[in-house]
Sequence to fold (982 residues):
Amino acid sequence: MQVRDAKPTLFATTRWTLVCDAARGGDTGASEALGVLFGTYWQPLYRYIRRLGQSAQDAEDLVQGFFAHLLSQNGLRLADRDRGRFRAFLLGSLKNYMANDWQREHRLKRGGFATHLSIDWKNAETGLGLEPEDCRSPDRLYDRDWAMSLLDKVLDDLAREEKDFARWKPFLSVRSASLSYAKIAEDFGMTEGAARVAVHRLRKRYRQRLRDEIGRTLADGQLVEEEIRSLFAALSE
Amino acid sequence: MPAGGQLCPSCLMAQGMASEAFDGKRPVPEPEEIADKFPQFEILECLGRGGMGVVYKARQKSLNRLVAIKILAPEREHDARFAERFAREAELLAKLSHPHIVTIHDFGETGGLYFLVMEFVDGVSLRDLLREGKLDPEQALAIVPEICDALQFAHDHGIVHRDIKPENILLDRRGRVKVADFGLAKIVAAVCDRRNSEEESLRRSQTAATAAAAELTEAGKIMGTPSYMAPEQTEHPGDVDHRADIYALGVVFYQMLTGELPKDDFVPPSKKVQIDVRLDEIVLRALEKNPGLRYQQASLLKTQVETILQDDKNGAPDEPDRLDAGARAAVLRTGRNLAVIGALLQLAPIFGLLGTVWGMIQAFAALNAQGVADANTLATAIGHALTSTAIGMAVGVVGLALLCISLMRSRYRAKWFFWFLVIYSWPLLFLMPVFGTAFGIFFLIYCLSRRGDFGIETNFTAKSEAPFSRNELPPPGTAYAGFWKRFLAVIIDYTLVSVAVFPFVVIMASIAPESVVVSVPFGLFTTERLVESKQAERKNADGSTTVVDHRIVEVTALGRWKYLYREEIEHSAGKEETAKHLIDPSSRKNIKITTAWDIEIWVLMIYWILMESSACQASVGKMIVGIRVCDSQGRRIGVARAAGRNASKLVSAATLMIGFLMAGWTRKKQALHDIISDCCVTTAVAGDLAGNIQGLSGKAADPSVPGRAGDASSAGAQTTARAGRMCSPEKKAPVPRPIQLRSSG
Fold:
């Protein structure tokens, strides 16, 4: 995914609801931030559309059009019943858009949507055909894709900021007890104690980033735990 | 797909969940981080974050035993005063050695962290148990006394817990209760006292208390959930004593029983779950807002709980499997015998009722044709009736009591049948006093109205209009009753009927609210509320405008039944017309529901017919004012005639407006009324009528008068003939003077 990462603006860690409100109000910085948000999470949408049976071309069209629609004045209507979750809001808006507006716009523009995002569509395609026959609904798979995109983003951010992240990465998902700190110490040339501390600190930062990122997609920071649980459930189905 | 194939996405996500203590500001130290601060312990794992700090499971290397190390609020690191206070308090706490209190083994400070080494409890906390919902009452009742023991022990040593909550109540694998974190609240709060100036003024100490309170409530993390704090802990933190622990225990108790926290207006636990109602008292008393009203000692609470436990053990019915077969059979047998006796005794009210009715029949039978009766006979009859009522009721109540006792104590299996008996006996027991009272009142009124000078309402034939010849004297003691008497009689009758009908209307409305409109007699307990109102102007045909008030009012009867009416009040020149119609609340359309009036009018009619044709010869109202209804010979009239009379009231009411009452004004109108009423009489009594006329006039019925076919027509023709005669103005009938009847007895 080659989305240009915008300079960290004021909106980098703000709740998405505030970003949307600001973008609606015409704030270009907010629009950019919204673009970044969207840039992180467009993939689940794309794959959802493809699973519904649309062709790749149509799916691209839809995604671009949807984003343009989001930015426009009409697009950013918040539904309370989503309880402030960007994930649900995005899917709901997409469905709405597909049902109502896209047909109209598509007819008018005949596939010539202005490109707001430079997206590597191929990346989204990979694996789509390889997935085994899945009886889960596209909605559930959307949640799963969403979780994946989220993790991707977090890991990418970490990769950028931590040095040597690639080597430390494997220890993130393994339980503390099953790690052999002695071996780690040997591999990295440090004492066992230092190894423990390093792993622990890395985990801490990862956790923090994960929760921050999730918090960004929620209107209410308190619901992070709940969101993690549902994402975990989506991943482990 | 995430980069780096060996990463498992769900594990990655799970990592995010791992720490429940992650508040973003002060992360929980991992075991690895603090291991080097405790060389004599092997830190095994983090057990969780408590109210005061973080708890780790560790192994004490020297003694090779498991302990729990609690690291307190690291914010206090560099507070010298805190250190001193901490040491003092910890020493006190270490003295608390009790099987139900988590023992403090050691305390200290290392590397800036204050810690406590405590007994490790291998088990769960009450919070974990409550996560699944509520506990069984037996479990709760087993836990509470042990907590009371712990509390009482600590209170006796002058230590108040201040933070009793499910997280602090642990249960080990053997089910023993261990209360943890005694007195820590005080340690943390104490720091705030010291932070302020050394001045001992009341104001300062109150500020300190408020500051402590502010810290208490503001942080939430330090002091734990405020839901368990007693009211005085938040209002006057300086005045908190051991009774705050009892309040907290009450909250926990409530939560164990019902699964919920008691809110401001909480429901007693026995209403939410199936438990002994005596537990309500205990819980409520522990939850008293005023500390003075609570249990003053935890041991008292414990004694009460244990009493209930003991009773439950003794009361075999709840746990029949505790008894052996023989004892159980004996219990059941007693229960069954009691139930049978109780059921048989339930029949007594029926006999009582029969006795009452028998008494009434006797009383009626004692009435002679004139409707008076011998006082002694009356008294005997009343005596019969009332005695039967009383005895029947008494026996019935005893039987009912026996039945209920046996059902509750022995759980006799066929109890559904006996519950049926209980249910059926209630209305009976209710009816009996009603019957008895009604009977008594009736006879009282009757005796009052047993006056000699009663007036006859109607002679039932036009005969009364004719001049009385010598051999045509009206029966002795008869005079034509005037308007006001009749009016009063109608009022009385209507009042009686509406009051009598009212309970049935209420019952019907309770069962099926849409079946009848409840209106309380005399408009009592009825309120009216204006819902909507608007004015409109209507142009009339003659050019004038009428202002019409459209109002929708809601009438509430007895505070329970609400009906919506649409009122249209017309204000036109000089007059005001009102139309009121019942409407449906949702569609606002006019609807028709049976009203009490509809029922009353029928009851009134039937009542009049029955009473006027009975030996009383009058309804209650008429009896009171001294009117009797009889035929021209002063005899009783039959049911059919009475029916005809009353039906004719309806007819004449329609035609003459209040014609049947106005009949009292003039005899001419009465004649017309009689004519109409005669027409309504069925053919069956035609013979009776004809006989009367024959007797009166002394001549045979004239068959040659043209008229309608059938016997009744001859009567009708006869009366018509007389009526014709009557209209001639030449002779005015002398009004016979009323003759006093000899009053008997």
User: Anything to note?
Assistant: Residues 83 and 219 of chain A are 8 Å apart (CA to CA). The radius of gyration of chain A is 20 Å.
